[in-house]
Amino acid sequence: MEVGFWHLLENGKIQCDLCPRFCQLAEGQRGLCFVRARSSDRMISTTYGRSSGFCVDPIEKKPLNHFLPGTPVLSFGTAGCNLTCKFCQNWDISKSREMDTLANQASPELIAHAAVQTKSTSVAYTYNDPIIFLEYAYDTAIACREVGVKSVAVTAGYITPKAAEKFFSVMDAANVDLKAFSNQFYKKQVGCELQPVLETLEYIKKESGVWLELTTLLIPGLNDSETEITEMTQWVVDRLGPDVPMHFSAFHPAFKMGSTPPTPQKTLAKARQIALASGIKYAYTGNIADRTCESSYCHSCGELIIERVRYQLGRWNLDKHGKCINCGAICSGVFAEQPGNWGSKRVQVKMP
After folding, report:
1. What whole-number percentage of the chain has pLDDT above 90?
2. pTM of the model
3. Was domain 50-349 assigned CATH 3.20.20.70?
């Protein structure tokens, strides 16, 4: 399928304008993402309508703790990625160069229908970065909107401003992976620059109307220093606001970092405390079970408002307006009158 966000250069190459890599392609070449390719004098997507699989997950797994808690989300991805993270936790999908990975074929309308049939409140574009399959995600989000299903982006936010405007115009929520707060880390471990990601975050928060949460995978010795976490959380408070929830997740050895040790629980707990001390109202830990650090607390009175254990909701102390039943303070987020009851289960979905 022909896609947008490219232009023809004077040297005869096509430049992809989807992400800040600006790959320049001769005939038959693919971008670094591997899925956007030149065919004659146009850019095509090699993965439109093809997925690596569909599952219904709890929304908390994305992770989104303040967007319709307890509800099911139909999740899917394609193949490839526009980043080169050495620590990728989904490397078998995002680093795939085999189109056979894409065993499931589904039109946007079929995905929207599947969301309704599985009683999913939303569809998540995830597993690999949906930015590289922007047109597929966009068309699916439009189809979902027509049947009352919301759309969730799980992304690293490495996208150009014009592409971001289109992509986020159809999203209802996003979890952006802020991988570190060091350009050196981004260049060496991720293969890109930090600044475009920060610009994307400011666009989402200030101009898009999309509910935003952030996730940082803490890797021992690389991005887990107290100084860096302090700088990151203070930037979030100053530039995005204290209402943006932050998730600090545990790294597990994977891909090119198989010998790097996993993140200790105490590192995650310390990062959460630093975030709260910086003024972040809602900070969480992930990938390690911890009832205290996974649950939500009222930013005003400190009382428990949403209890969580590994994606499973427990006590719920918000009223139907999203206010703390103890003091009446509003909990920032997108809430229904009652929480969902999907629980922690994961269900695979086969498309017809």
Report:
1. 87
2. 0.96
3. yes
